Amino acid sequence: MTELLVVIVTGLVVIAAATVAGPRLGIAAPLVLVAIGVGASFLPVFAAAHIEPEWILEGVLPPLLYSSAVSMPAMNFRREFGAISGLSVLLVVGSALALGLFFMYAIPGLGFAYGVALGAIVSPTDAVATSIVKQTSVSQRVVAMLDGESLLNDATALVLLRTAIVATAATFSFWAAAGTFAWSVVVALVVGGLVGRLNLVVRRRVTDPAVNTVISFAVPFLASVPATLLGGSGLVAAVVAGLVTGIRAPRELSPQNRLSDTQNWRTAELVLEGAVFLTMGLQIKGIIADVEQDHAGVGTAVLVAAGALVLTVLVRAAYVTLLLAALARRARHGAGMRSMLQDMHDKLGTSEGKQEAFKEVNARRRREPSERDLDMFSQRVITGLANIDYFLRQPLGPREGIAVVWAGMRGAVTVAAAQTLPEDTPQRPVLVLVAFAVAALSLLVQGGTIGPLLRRIAPPADQAALDAHRTEERDRLFTLMRTSVESVPAPPENDFLAAKEHRLAVLAAQREALLDARDHGTFDAEVLSNALANLDASQIDLELRGKLV
Asked: What is the C-alpha to C-alpha distance for residues 112 and 21, in angstroms, rounded to an integer?
């Protein structure tokens, strides 16, 4: 027991030290932790270390994906959903098939089905590994695409892995596999959505921030475990629960609860991410020993892994090139429609203008539109115009394409998934070593060079244009916040409690206006996030001062 406690405490200290020292050394903290784990794997105390893959896939991933989904700007996720779904489904499937052919010829006697299984293990980017790219100066669109991809592609890969293993039997059916995949996604969406809503219903009634956070720690498992038992994807269920929570929490949870939630989840993320990379390094000695015991070549496995990594980058580059071309066409189409939408937007200020704009779009409609129809139409116009401005303001050029390609790193999930291969898999130790080597090389080569690479190809920043845009955003934001409180009645003089209630009502009106703007996408996500954080801080300060009086 004492040895276990020493290992846990040492691990926490190492994670904290690597997080602080890594950036100062110019090395990403995950790389430092992997290196420390590899070194520690040769110590006698870790000689028999074995990490159950289920602990990573079912114990660590759900909370990490849930936390990332909660903090992800929902509007950016919606705007980039087409790109995200392509990266997390089409690219994973295409990469797995290409890698399946490569492994079939590179590893004699493996076969195509097991090659695809290993390809599915290697194909998805790691949600933890991609945290490295957030430390660089990439655009919000790139971050949104990478975040969204890493939230969803693990589920695609794991379903494809199970399908490929089933395909080794004579009873395999393509349509049955497609039905299984569809069922997995549908179950995850339903369970994740229900858990996310129930989470908010319960926590809205809990006033203690500490208790509120404890409940939130259970949410990803309350979503993932039932979804898995029903044959769905537990990871997608955890992501959906996180997205629902992230969208609705500012309207339904108090600032104190959300602030406590954020701080505690950041701590949990730091510990879990660090543990993932440490355990990844700790497993290297055991993996190599298994390969040597089977008299297989370690060097050959590493060469195969290097070839697989090159192939994944090439396939990803080809797909991203096509994706950027499609996104550029969509942006040009939006630019052509902007003037028409702007004319409609200008008419939305009056009831007659709404009617006129609605009829321009729905000329064949005979029934008079209801107020709900007009409101929904107005929201679509506002959101559509905001989306076009967003895409035009943040175009995806070659630099962004390089960032998306090179930031597609593999991590500990690849190693954990490889260890779930059945014991009777041909050359199983070699396949596990190949997966580990791909993940390690990916972190070392891509993770170690992504920062310098992006800084080298970064165009000179137009600081004047950036300052002008920020000023314009702030001015529009302040105008919105001023107009949102015009209907709040003034408090009586010399009445502290009434003044406090008035100030709280002002903050509530401003928060509602900002959240409506967030849902419409009319402001930059980071600007809105900072404004909402300031409102939360003001409300917490006001409530604390009220308790002291």
From this structure: 44
